[in-house]
Amino acid sequence: QQKVQQSPESLSVPEGGMASLNCTSSDRNFQYFWWYRQHSGEGPKALMSIFSDGDKKEGRFTAHLNKASLHVSLHIRDSQPSDSALYFCAASELNTGNYKYVFGAGTRLKVIA
Amino acid sequence: AQTIHQWPVAEIKAVGSPLSLGCTIKGKSSPNLYWYWQATGGTLQQLFYSITVGQVESVVQLNLSASRPKDDQFILSTEKLLLSHSGFYLCAWSPIWGSGNTLYFGEGSRLIVV
Questions:
Q1: Residues of A with CB below 8 A from B98's CB?
Q2: Which of A54, A81, B106, B107 has the highest CB neighbour count under 10 A?
Q3: Is B103 exposed, middle or buried (0-12, 13-18, 19+ CB in 10 A)?
Q4: In this complex, do A88 and B51 lie within 8 Å of one another by their Cβ atoms?
């Protein structure tokens, strides 16, 4: 069973709309979370990290973490066609000696102009 | 600013042939280095990581090996390719100290095994 599960698998939103992506971990050792975005043919790029309960906002992107339920979400407001990409949730353990990062299966976002 | 360069950009190789993919990081001293594999449109599977020159840890066994001959260089290789090795190989780095360090990926090397 994958330790980091994402939903939905794919999502279509109109330009200017709100996109909401979800991620749940099944491993309580995971305490650090990231959202990555990957455009076709490119390497993934980190959008934002979130390590504390609550919301974290960076521009049009807002991440929310609930450590009790190990649920992380990403909300993209005013979605643009350039936001169309594969989005990954990634998690790592609370351990300075651990160098393993686990990625979810991804959510494919399509923003329709 | 740190830059990460992967080579080659793409390769088409025959089953049973050898493979060598490389990665160089500039502008960052003694980073942690990582290799990931991605099937087309799929998730990222961590293969190896290295925290210092000459030391590489394997995360999954895929008949691949990795080496870190220099502080800024990470090599992925195999002597005999399998069809299942096809995919997108990504090198990444993170700062060496502390927890919760972000991974920064290169642009990847696409491999097609025929």
A1: 96
A2: B106
A3: buried
A4: no
* Residue with the two structure tokens 């449109």: B41
In sequence order, what DSSP letters do the residues of A73-113 get, joined into one string?
EEEESS--GGG-EEEEEEEEES-TT---EEE---EEEEEE-
Provide CB contacts within 8 A for A3, sequence distance 6+: A25, A26, A27, A30, A91, A102
Chain A residue whose CA is closest to B56? A99
Q: Do A88 and B108 touch (CB under 8 A)?
A: no
Q: Does B10 touch chain A (CB under 8 A)?
A: no
pLDDT in tens, B63-106: 999 999 999 999 999 999 999 999 999 999 998 766 678 999 99
Listed residue (B52, B48, B41) closest to B88, CA to CA: B41
Mean pLDDT score, B45-51: 95
CA distances from B98 to A97, B91, B103, B111 (A): 9, 20, 13, 33
